[in-house]
Design goal:
This protein is an alpha+beta fold and 178 residues long. The protein is 26% helix and 29% strand. The termini are far apart. It is found in: Membrane.
Length: 178
């Protein structure tokens, strides 16, 4: 998926309220993913901005939140979710917090259409020319997020898990019959 913004943010844990530094990546499809570090190998969590985000607050709007040591309250950023929960973040500067807020709001409101690659396109090139339209227009190829799970995949996984559990459960009763 097309990248909107990425960078380091401090994230406050929901239970102990401790601050932890994570590498955040915001995609155009509304996936707001955070990782342990910038290698993006170990995903710590994800927020679906398009579906879950109700509001984004910065600075003084983030009431009852103490920023990490050495940071100003103006660097705070709170993503309010539809279920009533909040994700509290802290940027490196006030300008960075405002930039993240604008990027999240842009990703929330931008419609995304995914088109399958056409013949003649070389994967990994990132751009496609000659698709029609005005001269000089460059078309960007957007890939789906590799961590995205569709409803069909999840339902199939749950069904397979239930069948495996039932099969293993029936084996546990076999010794009682002998």
């Amino acid at each position: 998926m097309a990248l909107v913004k990425s960078g380091w943010l401090w994230r406050q844990s929901s239970i102990l309220r401790r601050w932890k530094r994570n590498w955040f990546v915001l995609y155009l499809d509304g996936s707001f993913v955070y990782y342990h570090d910038e290698t993006q190998r170990d995903m710590d969590g994800r927020i679906h901005i398009k579906y879950s985000c109700r509001d984004v607050r910065t600075g003084r709007e983030c009431r009852d939140v103490q920023p990490p040591e050495g940071k100003s309250r103006d660097c705070l950023l709170t993503v309010v979710l539809r279920d009533g929960s909040k994700t509290t973040l802290c940027a490196e500067s006030e300008d960075d917090a405002v930039a993240w807020k604008m990027a999240v709001l842009e990703a929330k409101s931008t419609p995304v259409r995914l088109h399958p690659p056409k013949q003649g396109h070389r994967p990994g090139t990132g751009f496609r020319q000659g698709l029609g339209g005005a001269p000089g227009v460059t078309h960007v190829i957007v890939r789906e997020d590799p961590y995205r799970v569709s409803g069909d995949q999840m339902a199939l996984g749950l069904l397979a898990g239930a069948a495996t559990g039932a099969a293993l459960g029936s084996f546990m009763w076999m010794p009682c019959w002998f």
